[in-house]
Each structure stands twice: as C-alpha cells, then as structure tokens.
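Subject: sequence -> structure tokens, single chain

Hey, anyone have a minute? Need the predicted structure for the following. Not urgent.
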Amino acid sequence: MAEQTIIWTVTAYKDLQNIVEYISQDSMYYALAFYDDVMDKAQTLNDFPHRGRVVPEMDDPEVREIFIHRY
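Reply:
Had a minute. Here:
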C-alpha cells in the first residue's frame, strides 16, 4: 500500500493551535498531552485511511475527518 500523506487544512490547524493555547492557560501539561493525542490519532489515518467520515462539504472520499474528545 502506498504511503498516505496527512494534510491539515489551515482552518483545522489554526483551530488546534487555539484549543491548545486555551488549555495551556490552565495547564501546559494537559495542553501538550491534548496536542500529542490529536497528532497520534491523526497519524492513525496512515494505517487506516478510511477511518473517520468523509467530510460532507468536501464530497471527496479521500478527505476524512475524525473527532477527538469533544473538540
């Protein structure tokens, strides 16, 4: 199987940065743990590229989104 590439949209990455920044106001430890968790779960798309759902507004079966925690 060919190696997949995870491509983040600008909006998704900025949202992640904002969430991490918000969490870090209370705890840098939990902010970094959250960031690591998101990155680890995103990397699972390399092994399971059909994990998650097709992004409805994109209408492209190769574009997926996964939900992590309540964010």
